[in-house]
Amino acid sequence: MTTTATPAARPRTLAASVRQVTKTYGEGDTAVRALDRASLEIPTGQFTAVMGPSGSGKSTLMHVLAGLDDVDSGQVLLGETDLTRLSEKERTLLRRTRIGFVFQSFNLIPALTAAENIRLPLTLAGRRPDRAWEDRVVDMLGIADRLTHRPSELSGGQQQRVAVARALVTRPDVIFADEPTGNLDTQHGQALLEFLRHTSADLGQTIVMVTHDPTAASYADRVVFLVDGRVVDELTEPTASAVLTTMAGLAGKED
Amino acid sequence: MWRLAIKQVVAHRFRFVLTTLAVVIGVTFVSGTLVLTDTSQQLFDEKFSSRSSGSDVTVRTEVAFDEAMGVEVEHAPVPESLLDTVRDTAGVDEAVGVATGKGVLLVDGDAVESTGMPLVLSWTDEPFGRFEISAGHEPRAAGEVVLEQDTARRAGVEVGDTVTVQSDRVRELEVVGLAESTRQAAYEGASVALVDIDAAQELLRLGDGYSEIRVTADDGTTATALEDRLRDAVGKGYSVASSKDVARASSDAARTQLGYLQGALLALAAAALLIGGYLIANTFTIVVAQRTRELALLRAAGATARQVKRLLRGEALVVGVVGSAVGTVLGIGAAAALRGALEAAGADLPSGPAVIRPGSMLLAFAIGVTVTALAAVAPSRRAGRVSPLQAMRSAAAGRVAGRRRRVVGTVAGVASVAALVVVGAGGASVALAAVAGVLAVVALAALGPVLAGPLTRIVGRPLAALGVPGRLAGEFAAKAPRRTAATVLALSLSIGLIAFTTVLSASLRSEISDRYQEVVHADLVVESSGMEMLGGLSPAVYDRVAALPEVESATRMRLGHFKTDGTGTALAAVDPATVESAVTVEMRSGSLADLDRGGVMVSESTAKADGLEPGDTIAMTFPRGTRRVPVVGVYDDDLVAVTQVNYVIGLRAYERLYAEDVDADVFVTLAPGTDAEAAQAAVERALADFPNADVRDQAGATEGRTALLDQILGLVTAALLLTVLIALLGVTNTLALSIVERTQEIGLLRSIGMTDRQLRWMIRSEAAIQAAVAVVLGSVLGLGFAAATVRALGGTHPVPVVVPWGGLVTVLVLGTIAGLVAGMLPARRAARLRLMDAITTA
Q: Chain A residues contacting B, CB < 8 Å?
């Protein structure tokens, strides 16, 4: 591993956390308990990967952490803010400034240029872009020469880097990445993961990434494993094979 | 497939509700029109047949035709001597001479309201008359009148009061009794004054004559046999008919007028249905595009292309049947609303319970189903072409426009503009403008997707300046040019129609008033406020006005109908000696004075069209028979703007040719040095007991001339607004459907911090942009076509095009606002999308 700093070297403030969170979808017989008294802490500056089999609740966990979805019970904190006490509108405004997203399917607005897509959260919030920061992000991602292009004129890797730039541009407390490499080929996927790791390490950016790919997870500082709506295990400074082994163990337990 | 089709409709309720609504509105209009005209027809028939006397045969003077252009021809009075001839005929049991005519009832100087013509009738007992005394006694002397009891109640008159009856003469009469009609509904709403025969003859200026003679057959003689015998007895110049046929002729005239109305209403309904049909086609096209995957799955599961087509057609049929059924039923209620609107615009329709004919209901229903089925033909064909493989792929974005489309569109567009230019230059008839209209629609439909993008960006610019949501809305609208074009086209067509009628009527309006002011230099004009087709002034009006010291000269104009080659046409009659005191008559050839020799003058455009010049003769059929009338002059078309007719004869000839005895206009020139206002007051005083005589100065007369145009415009615009409503439904529908397509995009926007409000504003903006594009496009279209049509209508005189900018700007603003409203429902739908679904839906 080539990590430049260990999580332990940083002050242990929490960027986000969930405590005893339960979330159920549906009612009666068809009810599905996606999160079952799940608890997790995300330290500031850490790159955390969330893994688990399909239906383990990892996506729900991310949605809850990001304020996209509400919970039945428990506490969700973003910094000092308790998201469960906020209205949908307040959560929307909070997402604008304090949270960034990177989706599997890039989710760029095809009608807007790359630069416009990057600035979209700021424009929606009516904020002025911080030019210096923006330039730095764009340079780092190597998309400075693609800014006037529309998404349809960009490769998949470029599109995803634009999406990452969009997530970074507001300097959010946390960036949530949902299977960010799912639609990329191996080469572009690895480049993106490298970049995410650098962002976390060099800029101190907190990142939470949901993935089912052990290799992707191995780029993180820490991997947490979810089964049946609960955090059941975790690895620090993971390797792909360690992740695989843990996963296999979990699958065994499941049966 | 049937069951699947029904299941589809039920499962996608929302998508189909709006489509169905479009069918409902169109069919409601059709069904409402049919119910209204059926009802009116039935009521007219009932009214006239129940008014027919209980006699067997009616003898009148002969006329060459019973009605022309929906106006019943008046019969000249039959002489007293004929009554004796009739009575002496074998087989006659009893015969009475009756006098009937128009007579306005006045109470304290105010006219008693009347639906249909206010009547004055000579009193006769059953079966010749249809009244029974319910209070007091029948009229026995010249100064006595009996009022129909409902008339009296409405007028607040009792036995013993004095009323004025104003007919060809004006008389004050004492109410000596009240009468009740023995036939229900015959006189409902009409004012009826019954006087004795001598008084009636005097009021109606019949001399010793009668309007008609009513005859009953004695026992042992059939009505038909009696008719034959009477025909031999009375000889030429009189018509003998069964009393039932006489009543039928009256209702036929009313029927003709209804026919015009029905035609106009159905044309508007057709416009509504056409735009509705377009919306349906549009919806189905989008639905097919969205369901490509589902349809492909069906194909993969073994459905044939035909089955898929049938599925789509089945769904259309469900929509058509449901929408048409609802619309047909709603039409019954709409008929009442339609009647109210028409009456507000001056139409005189009988009221009564709605008549629901199964045939009409079926027709409305069938029209709705057919339009829907036709609208679904192209989309279902497209559905049939979906290949099973497409189930594995996500729907590819459609091409903007194929080459063939572009070629067809460009050719149609160029042809349309060329046709318009030709029409505008006066080189062709107005019919070519209609062809150009069709071509323009074809061009727009074909090129719409190409134009939509740039147009949307331009029109959307002001909104973009207002913020990101507005800008995104513009980009989204421009990004889906096909959808935007389809939505915009329907709306722009309806807006175009409105712009067209507005500009056309504004131009005609200003033209009519300009010409009127140029041609008529009378100081005062007296006209009937009743807007009767042939005018409605008692001749006494002219006599009184002419006798006033303030008046230097007065001249009158009458109107009549005649037939050439079997079609009814209107003519005016003037006094060639005095007409120029009030009206400028510019002769192109021939001479005005020759009218007195019994000739006819024709307008310049008619002379041109028919190749007529002074010295030619035209065969004209008047109520009293056909004559070859010499053409004595050709007058400038300016006069047409005033008289509205292309044929003018002399007053003296008119009196010989027509039994009608009403003036349409009395033109007054004041004596020099008279104060205009004082003189007008004097004329009004002199005509105080003629409540329908409106005394107008030149400005007032001009206004009166254009008032009708304004009313018609109001009515047409109201109907066209309905098509706008349908088109707006289209905006709502397509936008709502597009929300489904854009779920992911919306999810993204929401997750990176777009608020509910911003999202709603964005969707509404998109609707507003589409509406604005439609308004701009529609206005341009409407303006172009109106300009060309106005030019073409001008004939020998180019008519200036008047554009009511204020009105058009109002349309623009209102249209855009309407678009915002149309976007509300889809906006709410988008905002209600569960955030999670939006994000997770790939």
A: 59, 63, 66, 68-69, 88-89, 92-93, 95-97, 100-101, 103, 105, 107-112, 120-121, 123-125, 166
Chain A CB contacts of B836 below 8 Å: 63, 68-69
Percent of all residues in chain B with a pLDDT value above 90, rounded to a whole number: 11
DSSP code of residue B462: H
Q: Do B754 and A92 touch (CB under 8 A)?
A: yes
- Give strand pairing partners of B211: none
Nearest Cβ partner of A68 from B472, B839, B842? B839
Are residues A93 and B753, on separate chains, in Cβ contact within 8 Å?
yes
- Is residue B234 within 8 A of residue B92, CB to CB? The reply is no
Q: Are strands A14-25 and A73-78 parallel, antiparallel or unpaired?
A: antiparallel
Please, are residues B568 and B533 in contact by the beta-carbon 8 Å criterion? no
Q: How far is A107 from chain B (nearest CA, A)?
A: 6
The answer to whether A59 contacts B840, with C-beta atoms less than 8 Å apart, is: yes
Residue labelled with tokens 């020469």: A145
Task: Identify the helix (H) or strand (E) that includes residue B769.
Answer: helix B756-793
Question: Are A124 and B752 within 8 A, CB to CB?
Answer: yes
Q: How far is B841 from chain A (nearest CA, A)?
A: 10
SS3 state at B580: helix
Of B563, B562, B487, B501, which Cα lies nearest the Cα of B769? B487
Most confident of B221-225, B256-260, B646-650, B657-661: B646-650
> CB-based contact (8 Å) between B840 and chain A?
yes
Tell me how crowded residue B85 is: count the other CB atoms within 10 A of its CB: 18
Q: How far apart are the first and last CA of chain A?
A: 33
The predicted complex's ipTM stands at: 0.79
- In whole angstroms, give the CA distance from residue A102 to residue A112: 17
As a whole number of angstroms, the distance between CA B113 and CA B529 comes to 13
> Between residues B54 and A71, which one has the greater pLDDT?
A71
Q: What is the rounded average pLDDT of the residues A121-141?
A: 85
Count CB pairs under 8 A between chains A and B: 67
B762 to chain A, closest Cα gap in Å: 11
Contact criterion met (CB below 8 Å) for B504 and B790: yes
Query: Does B749 contact A at CB distance below 8 Å?
Result: yes
Lowest-pLDDT choice from A83-92, B246-255, B585-594: B246-255
| pLDDT category of residue B346 using cuts at 50, 70 and 90 | low
A107 chain-B contacts, CB cut-off 8 A: 744-745, 747-748
What token pair was written down for A55?
């239906």
**pTM over the 0.80 mark:** no
Cβ-based neighbours of A17, under 8 Å, separated by 6 or more:
A39, A40, A41, A42, A75, A76, A77
* Chain B neighbors of A89, CB-CB under 8 A: 755-756
**pLDDT tens-place string over residues B424-465:** 776 666 777 778 888 888 888 788 778 887 888 888 777 777
Contacts of B470 in chain A (CB under 8 A): none
Tens-place pLDDT, residues B746-790: 888 888 888 888 888 888 888 888 888 888 888 888 888 888 888
Mean pLDDT value across chain B: 82
